[in-house]
Amino acid sequence: MTGLRYVYAVCRPFRSALQAQLTGVAGTPPKQLTHHGLVAVVSTVPEGDFTEEALRARLEDLDWLTVTARAHQQVIDALTAVTTPLPLRLATVFRDDSGVRSMMEAREDDFRRVLDRLEGRVEWGVKVYADKEPAAGADAAGPGAAEPGRPEPGAVPGRDHLRMRRSQTRAREDVRQRATAFADALHARLSAFAEDARTHAPQNPALSGATGQNVLNSAYLVPRTESEEFVELVDREKDDVPGIRVELTGPWAAYSFTGESAGEPEVGP
């Protein structure tokens, strides 16, 4: 089959077989391309979708981007189950196998250094959210607050509304401050346990679909053998924290610790 070579990851040779029915981007199964004792996991994709010009247009198509990202992640997840992959950025493509080998030759020292560091390790993600709306009732509005929607006797409706709005604003700010302090303390404890940590920008709720204000979005590099203990640590810390939600994801390939940019796709010769 002719087409471009889409590269998912670089890793060391592994013996365990990938899932028999595994497919990647464009519905094609991944294969291994070996060079100097390293393996690039690649599949063949249509040239019409992955030239530099075509990609500029495709990356504006959210439906296409979502399908492609899921297929890319499916291959990375399968690799993570059997080895330690160094994931490359989404839509890294080359003209042919020779182009992939040239890339591996040029970056061989960096690949080996990062793979040595990541061997036997996985990434866990932790996010902390502050509820946008405080709990309803007297605690949210303060002692003596009127029932929502019903002004106090003799109160001016406009003033009552403003008083309730100010009270709600103060309650939201209190939750945000408590969530930020909780997130800082949690991050310090998890960072002390993990081998390395990265803090990312808060997620955009319009893109993530998550409710609440994201006050912590961090990744932690943890030995695979210590993952259960890490999960238990997060579970202990997130119990019974009113107005604050902790989300744990993983284990993932160590995206945050590879040094690979998640920005523009790479289109090679």
Give the helix proportion (percent range). Answer: 25-40%
Overall shape: globular
Number-wise, the strands total: 9
Task: Identify low-pLDDT runs.
Answer: 135-149
Number of domains: 2
Q: Mean pLDDT score, rounded?
A: 84
What is the helix/strand order? Answer: EEEHHHEEHHEHHEHEHE
Estimated radius of gyration: 24 Å
Give a written overview of the molecule.
- Strand 2 and strand 3 form a beta hairpin.
- The protein has 2 domains: 116 residues, no CATH class; 102 residues, Alpha-Beta Plaits (2-Layer Sandwich), CATH 3.30.70.
- The chain has 9 helices and 9 strands.
- The strands form 2 sheets. Strands 1, 2, 3, 4 and 5 form a 5-stranded antiparallel sheet that branches.
- The chain is globular.
- The protein is α+β, with helices and mostly antiparallel strands and 269 residues long.
- Helix content is 40%, strand content 22%.
- The longest helix has 37 residues.
- The two termini are 19 Å apart.
Task: Jot down its keywords.
9 helices; 269 residues; five-stranded antiparallel beta sheet; Alpha-Beta Plaits; alpha+beta
Short description:
By secondary structure, the chain is α+β, with helices and mostly antiparallel strands. It contains nine helices and nine strands.
